């Protein structure tokens, strides 16, 4: 076997540096158009056995289309896919792709809610009538796959709709693992996972690669790509523009390739920290208990603060955010600055506390309505004239926000679903900014949002804080806390385990706080 | 006790079955002759076409994607007409010929519906409405006037075969087919496709085949329903086409099957049909004035639906992490 060079990064990747092995998968000049939109123009890359190959690009650069072609969901117009020297047929089904060893975990958490965990994991492996794998075998292999991903796996017979988002996504990953993939495609699959599961997934990825398989990895998170990827292919406007090796790439270079522009050299970095004045208390909690045995929380949020909520999923950050918006039924109270108690979301909105939910599709968007209505529904009363809505006034308001938030908008009457994820999120934000909030509660707003749109959002949040809004943001991305927040509340087991001020913030410190470990060294 | 209660509440058909039993008892209390054993074959024979129509409507609804087959009523009536007014007069009235033809006719029409909905992607309400009109037209062409026809086996089915009421055999047939399918992969795929077709498709399920088969199975059950109608009426009447369409869909819903697909059961549909049927017989026994009959019937049905949704365990608990 080839010798591993010493003193390399602690990744077992790159089995033999001397001669690249024969590619396990070759993608040649793939192209796909949906009507007039050319989602993919020309995408080529090679996947070698044993490597983790990241695909990066802005939203709308064609990543998802590429994945769906590889997975057999879409059929390409041009180009070909070769798996281990066998050219794949152009019109193949997801089943055929899987039989060739190409297994995909999609960005959307694709589970059948009423079905059991077991049935979800083996979904799609049976024939129309035939059951090729015995029931005992299925249970055992499902159990193994789940145990590899989760510290405390759910019961195989539980309906999957009762699980947390992270566990549901773990079921999707287990579904891929029981198929023994030669090539595993992870399309933004980590964004729904909690940190512990994500780390376990990375271990699985390394195991697959060590066994001669390969992984195509798509993520918006630079830290994950740096940690995992051996090579990185950059997509821009549907074309593959560069493939970089580990060590050759850095965040700046990637951003340059992704945007095709040179002036954006800031990486993920945000504006330099400004000394903002902390103003009056806008919202405070009194002996708030997220569950009966948790420590009570007494905390005050002041005008002009950017406050991060961090912690593993399910440890209370989300519940705390819900409490702040008036949707808390347990012990303790949430009070406004003037001492009014918040007991319902409607009351919170009236008090200037607005909430931007996490699940854009289910909780925020009206997918069948145009941008204009999506923007204006909660604030239509501003445009009333004798009881009638003056749509022209609404349009004026929208265009003001669209400009401020740098939304690329073809027309205010286009469907909101025609926008990219980042632009959808900006419209949702504009919807609530139009209500003139004093406290802005954000639930993981940058999930599935591309780098540029993320930076637009950061800039906006900074500006809002400067104007005296208290911004409370739950984020699953550690870097966001480190670079953006004035204060981070870390939740553990339903209580606030530590409060980190800006000067104390660092990646290692924050992550060790997630796990309740003491200390943690930064630099 | 509470575990027994839970198992009733969490099964999709549990509540409906319990309410049907309650109504059965109410019927016996209202008119003790209802319990007379000798009256059962006739009562069941009247009930059978409706119960079978409800069962025939079930697979398409479970298959999701707005799947619904409103042509079941006219289809079962056409099967009835073909047996009574075509096969029997032409000397093809033997059960060994008539029953396969009835089932094949039902399956074929169901398959056509399935192809229209999946391959051509028409909305299933529209597609099956068109089928409904065609079936009605064909029925009227075959029997412009009501005619009657009889065969010994039909008479037996309408009464008893040996000690067993014939209608019971007809109602049991789809349930047995369903149990058989439950031992294959098909039912699991059907409920998966109904629960989330995107997830199922991307995981490798042949969504198109599963849905076409759902409509085909429904059509086959409609064929059995046609035999049941022939057995009880022994009359071919084209104007009877629509009497089962909407009540059958209502029975499916009352039986705990979600009209959004992915949840439900065949037994629930029988129970749902029984609830509707037993409310009617109860009102008959209580000699409710004809003028009020429909009003009371509708109100009681509403009560049954409300009770069902209040008592049943929640379908969906939001999986928000705390």
Major β-sheet profile of chain B: 2 strands, antiparallel
Helix content of chain A: 25-40%
* Alpha-carbon distance between the two ends of chain B: 31 Å
**Percentage of helical residues of chain B?**
over 70%
Main sheet: strands, sense, barrel of chain A? 6 strands, mixed
Chart the SSEs and their pairings.
The complex is a heterodimer of chains A (523) and B (322).
Chain A: E1 25-34, E2 37-47, E3 52-56, H1 63-71, E4 78-83, E5 86-87, H2 94-99, E6 102-105, H3 117-121, H4 135-149, H5 165-177, E7 183-187, H6 195-210, E8 214-218, H7 222-228, E9 231-236, E10 239-245, H8 251-259, E11 281-288, E12 297-302, E13 306-311, H9 317-324, E14 333-336, H10 345-350, E15 353-356, H11 360-364, H12 371-376, E16 384-385, E17 388-389, H13 391-404, H14 421-433, E18 439-443, H15 451-466, E19 470-474, H16 478-484, E20 487-492, E21 495-501, H17 507-514
Parallel strand pairs in A: 3-8, 3-9, 6-7, 7-8, 13-19, 13-20, 15-18, 18-19
Antiparallel strand pairs in A: 1-2, 1-4, 4-5, 9-10, 11-12, 11-14, 16-17, 20-21
Chain B: H1 2-10, H2 14-30, H3 40-62, H4 72-87, H5 95-118, H6 124-142, E1 147-148, H7 152-158, E2 160-161, E3 164-165, H8 166-182, H9 186-195, H10 197-203, H11 207-233, E4 235-236, H12 245-254, H13 266-285, H14 290-311
Helix pairs in contact in B: 2-13, 3-8, 3-11, 3-12, 3-13, 4-5, 4-6, 4-11, 5-6, 5-11, 7-11, 8-11, 9-10, 9-11, 12-13, 13-14
